[in-house]
Design goal:
2 helices; transmembrane helix; elongated; six-stranded mixed β-sheet; Bacterial Ig-like domain-containing protein; transmembrane; Immunoglobulin-like; Ig-like_fold; membrane
């Protein structure tokens, strides 16, 4: 190898080492200072664009540090009294509203609250709560629940058989009509009820007199019942 070639090879090796060293140095600088400078610069520009920023930060912080959770309320009830309960974070008092009227306040103890309210009206009622801090500056409203108060017994009509009737067939059909979303039991056994409240069920009689109780029960537990008597006697 000539002296010139050795010199060129030495120069190439030096340049390669210099490039590698500069690359490593740049990477170290980028991970050590570059990202930090980039983040700080972004934050600074964001503060300039949204000045004053202290108010925005406080509102975001409040949303993160406060919460209001309500235990699910029943969609329907047969009682005018209702238990409202739940939990909060960084709230001291809960106001309970029924049909947009403030009914009562529930104190928060250990981040939970529970209060029984009255005053539900027949039909649909709206129920919600508003949580407040001691200062009154921070408030949060819950979702609105709809609770139906139903105290009337369901309608129950027996179309067949008639009371005090006689049958020569051991198996008869019991049919009638009730309200929608109402369950029917015939001597304790469930019967099929369609969407319109019409029901019918085959029933096997015992020889002699049969007492048959038909009970209608709605979704909130209100019941209505009727008892009919059917006498079964075989044909001679």
């Amino acid at each position: 190898m000539s002296r010139l070639e050795k010199h060129r090879q030495k120069q190439f090796t030096y340049q390669l080492f210099l490039v590698v060293a500069l690359t490593i140095g740049f990477i170290v600088f980028l991970f050590t200072f570059g990202f930090k400078l980039l983040v700080n610069g972004s934050l600074f520009l964001n503060q300039l664009a949204n000045s004053p920023s202290s108010k925005v930060t406080t509102e975001i912080s409040d949303n993160v540090l406060t919460s209001l959770n309500i235990d699910p309320l029943p969609p329907a009830t047969s009682s005018a009294r209702l238990l409202v309960s739940g939990s909060t974070v960084n709230f001291d008092q809960v106001e309970i509203y029924v049909n947009s009227e403030r009914m009562t306040d529930a104190q928060v103890v250990g981040d939970v609250f529970s209060e029984e309210i009255s005053g539900l009206e027949k039909g649909e009622n709206t129920v919600y709560v508003i949580a407040k801090s001691k200062s009154g500056k921070t408030t949060k409203k819950s979702r609105i629940f709809t609770v139906v108060l139903k105290t009337e017994k369901p309608n129950l009509e027996i179309t067949e058989p008639s009371d005090n009737s006689k049958s020569s067939k051991q198996e008869i059909k019991i049919a009638g009509k009730t309200d929608k979303e109402t369950f029917i039991r015939i001597n304790g056994q469930p019967a099929v009820v369609d969407a319109q409240g019409v029901f019918q069920q085959l029933y096997k009689l015992s020889e002699g007199e049969n007492k048959i109780e038909i009970v209608a029960e709605d979704v909130v537990g209100n019941t209505e019942s009727k008892t009919i008597t059917v006498t079964y006697a075989k044909d001679d």
